Amino acid sequence: MNILLTGGAGFIGSHTCVEFINSGYDVVIADDLSNSKPKVIDRIEEITGKRPKFYKVDVSDRLAAEQIFKENKIDAVVHFAGYKAVGESCAKPLMYYRNNIDSALTMLELMEEYGVNSFIFSSSATVYGADADIPYVEGMPTGGCTNPYGWTKHMIEQILRDAAAANEKLSVILLRYFNPIGAHPSGKIGEDPSGIPNNLLPYITQVASGRLKELGVFGNDYDTHDGTGVRDYIHVCDLADGHVLAAEYASKHRGVEEINLGTGVGYSVLDVVNAFEQANDIKIPYVIKPRRDGDLPEYYADAKKAGEVLGWSAKRDLKTMCRDSWNWQKNNPNGYGD
Ligand code: WQD
Prior knowledge:
By secondary structure, the chain is of the alpha/beta class. It has helices at 11-22, 39-48, 62-71, 86-91, 93-114, 148-166, 200-208, 236-252, 269-280, 304-310, 318-331; strands spanning 2-6, 26-31, 53-56, 76-79, 118-124, 171-177, 179-181, 215-218, 230-231, 233-235, 255-261, 267-268, 286-289. The strands form 4 sheets. The chain has a 7-stranded parallel β-sheet with strand order 3-2-1-4-5-6-11, sandwiched between helices. Strands 7-10 form a two-stranded parallel ribbon. Helix 1 crosses helix 8 (236-252). The radius of gyration is 19 Å and the shape is globular. UDP-4-deoxy-4-formamido-beta-L-arabinopyranose binds at residues 84, 86, 124, 126, 179, 198-200, 203, 215-218, 229, 231, 269, 292, 295.
């Protein structure tokens, strides 16, 4: 099977590429490198011994993207490509709606034209919105998103449901990610945010490397076990495995499945700091800061459906996630930019 990964040079895309190649698939990556580096492709080859075919393409550019379908017999599309910074989406909502929705629509149109029937979508727990009960279960209503980034995920989910309702051959899996962290154990690929990181783990690893002075913990007065925010952190390699199983499932079924990819366990910011310190024997200095706008106190997945439908469950624990995140950062202090 030949899998097209849009945004395949990014953090989750690159790890997913490795898992697909290791599972015997042929992979084509389409990425405009707007938030990733070409070196990723070399690293994937170093890890797997196989070089994925690579197109430097903005997948909302229909003419350019069509070339991929003309030159390759694609069996399934895994659609990662999209802007993903929550704060930026509030400042530039039109850019987010245009880019994220356009690229999904373009892929769907090309799939229809070229008879490709499996679509795996990179969705997010953010679609459950601010008022959902925890744990988040797939059958819950979605919406009430707190930022344009989240709304683009929600809207694309709806577009996909409508497309599948009108095309009985189409198989769609909406993978709702919780908080992906960690890195490939080789230390050759990992998360490489530009500028000062927004997310917790990249921030912690940059404190560990001395690039940043201390971690700011955003609030310690939430109604959680230690007052700091609680999330469902998942190892990016577990997440990647989920995509391979989703593609296998999609090739045999029709219709739409929403599936959480999380561990089902919530950890607080201080739990993560402690786990990181223990896993790597490095002290992480931190200060308590005010709550960050838009943050929810606590959420985690109900992870049962992924087990029932895909036979998937997360295998790697928080310590492994912290060890692998640090292994990547330590070996690549400037990310791919060396
Ligand atoms: C985790 C916890 C923070 C940084 C975001 C997006 C979501 C998504 C994943 C995107 C929170 C706390 C963080 C720091 C801190 N999808 N924190 N100090 O906000 O759960 O999810 O990323 O592609 O849509 O919203 O992740 O890693 O930013 O925060 O105390 O310097 O760590 O308050 O409790 P979040 P995060």
